[in-house]
Amino acid sequence: MRLPVFILCVFLPLFLVPAIAVEAKPMFAPKPAVVIPGADQVSLYLPLLKGKRVGMVVNPTSTIGNKSSVDSLHALGVDIRAIFGPEHGFRGNASNGAKVKDETDPATGIPVISLYGKKSKPSEEDMAKIDILIYDIQDVGCRFFTYINTLRNVMESCAASGKELLILDRPNPNDFVDGPILDMNLKSGIGQFPIPITHGMTVGEFAGMINGEGWMKDKQQCKIKVIKVKNYTHGMDYTLPVNASPNLNTPQSVLLYPSLCLFEGTIISQGRGTYMPFTVLGAPALKGKYSFHFTPKSIPGMSEDPLHKNEDCYGLDLRKYNTAPLRKAGKVNIAWMIELYKAYPFKEKFFDGTQSKAMGDINKLVGTTAFKAQIIAGKSESEIRKSWEPGLSQYKQLRKKYLLYQE
């Protein structure tokens, strides 16, 4: 039987037209690659340690997987001759600012030499006992976080002795650049370099800047080798697997630290003496102006003599504050400083940092004498930020020379 002509005209072209290629879309988006710190890439650096006497600059953040890097490498047969402990000590049981004594590690029997007591860097005698020094400490990307001072100090010891420094690099959780450049007339234990509050670099990158900018004694040069973080790029969100220090004990505290540490130079408590440090702000004199309150106590290993001990402090609860916009904008929050200064009834006492046993001087913390005067004068946030230029932009250009990771 013959098909009607109109049926052939309508349907036959459908069989003759070539198939149109349609791009297949995956049902699930690929998972991002896992970030692997330098320390966890043991196969890359274990051969470098074979037959060598090893020293390690480490603290509780120094881990391979979920185990101490010292314990892990010791178990692999690495000849560790000395452990150098920075602030808080190797096992992290010392309070902020507390001097740390030399000891013998009970777990491994290895001598532990304090770099936060009688000396701040390995001596000539210490360096004679080792062939290579490992630096493996998690940084949080701030000028006043003292471990970058320790980094420079051990680089000087390596440079003087001709020994190599092996840096097991780790991500920067506060990976942005902001704040005024430190006025070197205000150089102190909480500010050693002409950099902003947040420097936007990993420790491995910062070591390159120390070398390149001649920031060591007599502009010495240290031979460094960096085991880079795998699958890491600048600007990534990164949650620390281990507490950065006794008082940076939550991811939120780490992200708020660049902003809240500035209050160490004021009469405002940042929560030291509680189990929520660097996530709250308050003082007794703010009672009636804020309903939220907390009471600092003596906590061994964290804060034994905190500001406003045993007093109710009223102020801001930032434990659930969304830090994402700050990180995306790459900013330290100075609006809280402006707000609490305006709210504080005894303004002549607001910057009385002598009552804070931890830091004490707002000028040294911020890095400039202008900031305190600007807050007192009622300057706006935009006016204060404008005063950080052109230094901040110049630093950003300088930083690019030393980056090991893409932005």
From TrEMBL:
It comes from the Bacteria. Residues 54-251 form the Peptidoglycan beta-N-acetylmuramidase NamZ N-terminal domain. Signal peptide: none annotated. Residues 255-405 form the Peptidoglycan beta-N-acetylmuramidase NamZ C-terminal domain. GO terms for molecular function: peptidoglycan beta-N-acetylmuramidase activity. This is DUF1343 domain-containing protein. It comes from Filimonas effusa.
